[in-house]
Write a structure and sequence with these properties.
This protein has helices spanning 7-13, 22-36, 41-50, 59-73, 79-85, 94-107, 112-121. The protein is built from seven helices and no strands. The termini are far apart.
Length: 136
């Protein structure tokens, strides 16, 4: 199952993967990432190698973050590129980090395409909380 994504390397970097239920946890999570990447094994493997802990997140959690970003930015077809660049985006708080950061970019007059370009070059912008750090 994980061989095509660098399975041994993933297990070495994140041994708790061995504790996952194959049918109930691991396969659905990998399938979700694979579908999100448009079936790109290389991109899916890259995300899992960058952040093996992404496999700990429930599919519902991943879907929630993806839907939030899709609805807020309108970046349906480019969503996976953001995750490929910054997989930790799935661990960022939607309320404290993602929403304020994207709102700020929209208030600066950026459209969805400009937000996508900005985020793929400076995704760490969404990492820190903006409240108290940027006056706007």
């Amino acid at each position: 199952m994980l061989n095509r994504f660098g399975g041994v390397d993933l297990i070495e970097r994140h041994s708790p993967i061995l504790n996952f239920d194959m049918d109930g946890q691991l396969i659905p999570r990998v399938q979700f990432l694979l579908e999100l990447s448009g079936g790109d094994d290389d991109a899916t493997g890259t995300v899992m190698r960058k952040l093996p802990a992404i496999l700990k997140y429930l599919v519902e959690h991943l879907e929630s973050h993806v839907e939030f970003l899709r609805s807020f930015t309108g970046l349906i077809e480019k969503m996976y590129r953001i995750i490929l660049v910054f997989p930790n985006i799935v661990s960022a708080s939607k309320e404290r980090k993602l929403h304020p950061g994207i709102s700020f970019l929209k208030e600066c007059g950026m459209n969805s395409n400009e937000i996508f370009k900005f985020l793929t070059k400076a995704l760490l912008f969404l990492g820190p909380s903006l409240q108290g750090n940027i006056a706007y």
